[in-house]
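Section 5.1 Outputs to date
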Amino acid sequence: MICDLGELNDKVVNQGLDVAVVSYGGSCSNALNNVLKKNGIKAHSPIWHTILCHCPEFVQLDIPTIYVYDNPKKAFLSMKKRGMSFWGTNQKKLSNNNNVSLSDENLLQLMIQQFKSWTHMARKNVLIIKSSDLFKKEIKSKIETFLNRELKDLPLIYKKPSTSSDDKVGDHLKKLFEKYKNDIDYINNFQ
C-alpha cells in the first residue's frame, strides 16, 4: 500500500492543500494544477505527488476537488508514450500498491475503475471536467464559481497534443481497446 486512504484527508489538511486535482493521467491535470498555482492556490504537495494526483477511488476531502478526465485511449497512449516510468508509476498510484503486477490491461482497467469511483454520483465538493473543456472559455466561470474566486490564465491555451486516440497502435492494443469498448464509450459519452 502506498497510502492508507482513510488517512488521506488528514494528510491533505496537514499539508495545507486548498484544492485537489485528481485524474487517471494523460488528462491535462498538471496544466490545470499549474494554473491554480499561478493563482496562489496550493494544489501541489508531497501527498498530491505520492497518491492524490491519481487517487484510485473517491475519498471525501475537506477541500474542493477537481476530477479531470480525457478519452481513455488518448490518455492511455499518452502515458505509454512517456515511457515505462509513467506507465508503471500510474498503475502503482491507481492501485495504491507499489507491488502491483504491471500490464497494459491493468492500466486500462485501473483507469476505468477510478473514473467510475469518482463520477458515479454527483458530489457538492467534486467538479468533474473533461480535459477538452479546459480549452473553452466557459471553463473560467465554471471553475471560478466552484472555487468561489477569480482566476487568471483560464482557459488553457490549446496546443496540439502529441498523442491522439487515433494514433496507430499494434494489434495488442487494438484488441485491448476493443475488449473495453463499452467502458471507453461510457467515459467518452459521460455527461
